[in-house]
Amino acid sequence: MTHPLIPQIIDLATPVAAELGLEVVGIVFHTNQRPPVLRVDIRNSQQDTGLNDCERMSRALETSLDAAEIIPDTYVLEVSSPGISRQLVTDREFISFKGFPVSISTSQPYEGQQEWTGQLIRRDETNVYLNQKGRVIEIPRTLIARVQLDERR
Q1: Which one of 23, 34, 54, 66 has the lowest number of neighbouring Cβ atoms within 10 Å?
Q2: DSSP 104-117
Q3: What is the distance between the alpha carbons of residues 139 and 9, in angstroms, rounded to a whole number?
């Protein structure tokens, strides 16, 4: 389940990233760790995302988060590049990676399984469509925990 502060953090982080020529591609708040870890994945659309991009984003976002006082307690901020094995989150990513091999994890079993692999067809308002050896599988978005590129295939 997504942490309730994530939408506010996205609203804050997106313009910070844009000012630096970067894009936020994912945010996860691991509150089960002490101190909690806020992980922000970024991408530089002009070139390979480098350590310098992560450092610039970390400094700028830390300043904005502290000023906004969204997170009341101590936390660790991690800014990184998701790399090729990353999760697909945005509509743009689902369009860009159409036809690519993906693995899908569901939060509970769907049609008897929780892990699905195949070629990404598309995503709409209600389902993610997967091609498994010529057979189209429709997986309800409400059950999907994660969709990521499957680099093993």
Answers
A1: 34
A2: EEEEEEETTEEEEE
A3: 28
DSSP bridge pairs for 26:
41
| Residue closest to 4 by CA, chosen among 64, 72, 60 | 72
Instruction: Provide the residue type at 66 as one letter.
Output: D
Alpha-carbon torsion 94, 95, 96, 97, what sign? positive
Kindly report the pTM of this predicted structure. Answer: 0.56
| Tens-level pLDDT at each residue, the chain (153 residues) | 578 899 999 999 999 999 999 999 989 898 888 899 899 999 988 888 888 899 999 999 999 999 999 998 899 999 988 664 577 888 878 888 889 899 999 999 999 999 999 999 999 999 999 999 999 999 999 999 989 888 665
Tokens of 41: 């994945």
User: At residue 28, what is the residue type?
Assistant: V
Looking at the DSSP assignment, which residues form a beta bridge with residue 43?
Answer: 23
Q: Give 108's contacts (C-beta < 8 A, 6+ positions apart).
A: 114, 143
Look up residue 141 and give its amino acid. Answer: R
